Amino acid sequence: MANVVVVGAQWGDEGKGKIVDWLSSRADVIARFQGGHNAGHTLVVDGKVYKLHALPSGVVRGGKLSVIGNGVVLDPWHLVKEIATVREQGVTISPETLMIAENTPLILPIHGELDRAREEAASKGTKIGTTGRGIGPAYEDKVGRRSIRVADLADDATLEARVDRALQHHDPLRKGLGIEAVDRDALITQLKEIAQDILPYAAPVWKVLNEKRKAGKRILFEGAQGALLDIDFGTYPFVTSSNVIAGQAATGVGIGPGSIDYVLGIVKAYTTRVGEGPFPTELLDAEGKPDADGQRLGERGHEFGTTTGRQRRCGWFDAALVRQTCATSGIKGICLTKLDVLDGFEKLKICVGYELDGDRLDYLPTAADQQARCTPIYEEIDGWSESTEGARSWNDLPANAIKYVRRVEELIECPVALLSTSPERDDTILVTDPFED
Ligand code: IMP
């Protein structure tokens, strides 16, 4: 019985929602292990569209246990609203179907304020382009040992002491940014009120998951963002504040690394990114605006963010970067998505490495100045004029599309386990079932 981790292998927005939904229909437990409500997962189930940010995708399917692990940072006010929204859509959520790890750090309103104030104050070139949801400041408080965690909501004295500790740090910081000091009593009142809504879901998730595992239940670990936004292995500092790579699945819920049997990387057939930071294959014109190919990818691929609505930057497939993320996440197979967006291009380009100061590199170097000087080395491939949308078998694909997929596999040194050919669940070509591998 396999447990599967799903991670984005680029900068997020690879189309994880559909695949996670398909896999979750066959899992017993679906666990989020990092990130927060900066994520946006769109699910289409029986014609109904669900937009989830904090809740694991499993909630929309009956009979599953959904888990928010300790690796997540949780905005309790957002969660309560999200639960209300999906309930209105007919989804049942109860402490039997949703558990939140007691050691999950909370995102407070002051974290969002700080996130946005810093972004506004940032000089050119230093803005991260965050989602403004307070993710970074909440993780800073976690490692700074001044978080308020879910379990702290259960005891008034502990809660007040935790708030005081956090404010010792935050008030001077806010003063420096020209924001008024926090209203301590109002914050404590807000927390005590929300505690009643959150505490019923609090549980020792590590224990529950270890028991489930021993009982032979299937666990699906649902990643958010993408490996190039990883705090250690991403394009730092233009990253999110959590570990996104697959190893985090174990730490983010409290289950050993041996519990992970299969890592599925979700990979878009081209590349997109939201927010600032390096993007070697970005398709720009001389004025720094999307060029004709970049615009075409964005329009055909509907490349607008689920969480912020921002237009995504678009570029050719970067095999060097995906080879890197396949390695750092231990990806066993990929799901290639949105191949149909490439339909109709006469020629396609794939980045196979970089040129830096006359040398050829097969990976993106870490130093920011070197990254900026890297120029992509492209391989050109013939495109196809036929439609690949909705293909359900290899026979439905034009020969050049198959060649493209095969070349991607060779270059990233990882096989295609699934090929997704439209947002519809059944428009998928299955090569390897991650749960059965
Ligand atoms: P933060 O996670 O809000 O701190 O934002 C840091 C960076 O991660 C920014 O470039 C965001 O655009 C990016 N980011 C955060 N969440 C997502 C996501 O779910 N998809 C794509 N990019 C994301």
Automatic annotation (TrEMBL):
The active-site annotation reads D13, H41, K142
Q: What is its EC number?
A: 6.3.4.4
Q: Has the keyword NAD been applied to this entry?
A: no
Superkingdom? Bacteria
What positions does the entry give for Mg(2+) binding? D13, G40
Q: What segments bear the compositional bias annotation Basic and acidic residues?
A: 286-303
A GO cellular component term found in this entry reads:
cytoplasm
Which SMART domains has this protein been placed in?
Adenylsucc_synt
User: Which transformation does this protein catalyse, written as a reaction?
Assistant: IMP + L-aspartate + GTP = N(6)-(1,2-dicarboxyethyl)-AMP + GDP + phosphate + 2 H(+)
Q: What are the binding positions for IMP in this chain?
A: D13, E14, G15, K16, N38, A39, G40, H41, T131, R145, Q225, T240, R310
* Annotated cofactor note: Binds 1 Mg(2+) ion per subunit.
| UniProt-annotated location(s) | Cytoplasm
What does the entry give for GO biological process? 'de novo' AMP biosynthetic process; IMP metabolic process
The pathway is:
Purine metabolism; AMP biosynthesis via de novo pathway; AMP from IMP: step 1/2
Q: Which InterPro entries match?
A: Adenylosuccin_syn_GTP-bd, Adenylosuccin_syn_Lys_AS, Adenylosuccinate_synth_dom1, Adenylosuccinate_synth_dom2, Adenylosuccinate_synth_dom3, Adenylosuccinate_synthetase, P-loop_NTPase
Pfam families to which the protein is assigned, alphabetical? Adenylsucc_synt
User: Whom does it interact with, and what assembly results?
Assistant: Homodimer.
Q: Which PANTHER family match?
A: ADENYLOSUCCINATE SYNTHETASE
Supply the HAMAP family for this chain.
Adenylosucc_synth
NCBIfam families from the UniProt entry: PRK01117.1, purA
Biological role: Plays an important role in the de novo pathway of purine nucleotide biosynthesis. Catalyzes the first committed step in the biosynthesis of AMP from IMP.
Protein name as annotated: Adenylosuccinate synthetase
Query: Which organism is this entry from?
Result: Pelagimonas phthalicica
The organism's lineage is: Bacteria, Pseudomonadati, Pseudomonadota, Alphaproteobacteria, Rhodobacterales
- Primary gene name: purA
